[in-house]
Design a protein that fits this description.
Low-confidence stretches: none
Function: Catalyzes the first step in hexosamine metabolism, converting fructose-6P into glucosamine-6P using glutamine as a nitrogen source.
Radius of gyration: 20 Å
EC number: 2.6.1.16
Main location: cytoplasm
Bound molecules: 6-O-phosphono-alpha-D-glucopyranose
Oligomer: single chain
Enzyme class: transferase
Shape: globular
Subunit structure: Homodimer.
Length: about 375
């Protein structure tokens, strides 16, 4: 096992630190920057149904569902296709409306999640076309779907999903960008810009990981908190959900993720000097609004940890602590903003003496209902 961990103390730690490489592997042979091409070899015969889709339904559970939520923003923004993101477990039992030729994308690390598999079978039985975004080659979901794109992230052993999430978001981003070009909803130059932004992600993730020591020190400060709130807007809202899930899963601290603007409809009542609030406050169109949300928390004496774009001044000056990530295009920011949240949960869990790789009550793959 020590050999498998490759010098790291835990699988989760190894998998978090592997992300520059796993994301690069996920794009290898697919992003051909010199030719300005994006090749998805696994999506062939059914590519027309994807390109001409009137709606796409994304299916998943847990972290894979969060990757679907990130993709919802991208498909709608880049491809102008309406998207629904469904918990597979809810979808399958509510007599969903599925028509012949409808398009689905099932997202799964293991490819064995029972609810996702059953939802795929249901969709197929009504004549839908189902694509898979799966890590494990030859898994049940990979076999059941019509076509798809593998993550190529390598084995993920830690129960809390980390590198599979970034690979899922990378694959879904590649599909969205490619479809945007083919549908004519983005121009050739926007396409070039987006693929070059994706191409820079592995290097930028490596930079984001350099804040590990700073995050470990933060974990020492907040390790005894009883609750955490994670807030983000736009495509960083699902990242807030994912940050909260990571903390819950491995440290057993109660955490909630919320869209920052929804805070005033409930969570704001929880804020006092004992409540750490993690904001994803990167510099994009919603930056000013996030800054005013930070202000609202500070005026109620909440403790603010802000994930900010490098060189940020305003949000950082208001926050108790800030963690920088490299500047990037809005579309690819979730691939960077999730990194400090993974590290924060890892360090807090360790300091609380938790088993980060095998948290209580959780399974890596839920193959029964
Ligand atoms: C379990 C795992 C999660 C994972 C979820 C979905 O709950 O602990 O990490 O996100 O299942 O699994 P899948 O393999 O379908 O992505």
């Amino acid at each position: 096992e020590a050999i498998e961990k490759g010098g790291y103390d835990h699988f989760m730690q190894k998998e978090v630190f592997e992300q520059p490489e796993s994301i690069a592997n996920c794009m290898r042979g697919r992003l051909v920057l010199e030719k300005g091409e994006l090749v998805l070899g696994g999506i062939n015969e059914y590519s027309q149904s994807l390109i001409h889709a009137k709606k796409i339904t994304l299916l998943g559970c847990g972290t894979s569902w969060h990757a679907g939520l990130v993709a919802e923003y991208l498909f709608e923004d880049i491809c102008r296709i309406p998207v629904e993101v469904e918990y597979a477990s809810e979808f399958r039992y509510r007599n969903p409306i599925i028509n012949e030729g409808d398009v689905f994308i099932a997202i799964s690390q293991s490819g064995e999640t029972a609810d996702t598999l059953a939802a795929i079978e249901l969709a197929k039985s009504k004549g839908a076309i189902v694509f898979g975004v799966v890590n494990v080659v030859g898994s049940s979901i990979a076999r059941e779907t019509h076509e798809g794109a593998y993550l190529h992230a390598g084995p993920e052993i830690g129960v809390a999903s980390t590198k599979a999430f970034t690979a899922q978001v990378t694959v879904l981003s590649m599909i969205a960008i490619k479809m945007g070009l083919l549908r004519g909803t983005i121009s050739q130059s926007q396409f070039q810009l987006l693929i070059s932004e994706l191409n820079q992600i592995p290097k930028k993730v490596a930079t984001a990981l350099k804040n590990n020591d700073q995050i470990e020190a933060l974990a020492e400060i907040y390790k005894d908190a009883q609750n955490f709130l994670y807030l983000g807007r736009g495509n960083n809202f699902p990242v807030a959900l994912e940050g909260a899930l990571k903390l819950k899963e491995i440290s057993y601290i109660h955490a909630e993720g919320y869209p920052a603007a929804e805070m005033k409809h409930g969570p704001i009542a929880l804020i006092d000097e004992d409540m750490p609030v993690v904001f994803i406050a990167t510099q994009d169109d919603s930056y000013e609004k996030i800054v005013s949300n930070i202000q609202e928390v500070k005026s109620r004496k909440g403790k603010v940890i802000a994930i900010v774009t490098e060189g940020d001044i305003l949000a950082s000056s208001m926050a108790d602590y800030s963690i920088e990530i490299p500047k990037s295009h809005y579309v690819v920011t979730p691939l960077l903003s999730v990194i400090p949240l993974q590290l924060l949960s890892y360090h807090i869990a360790l300091k609380r003496g938790c088993n980060v790789d095998q948290p209580r009550n959780l399974a890596k793959s839920v193959t029964v209902e």
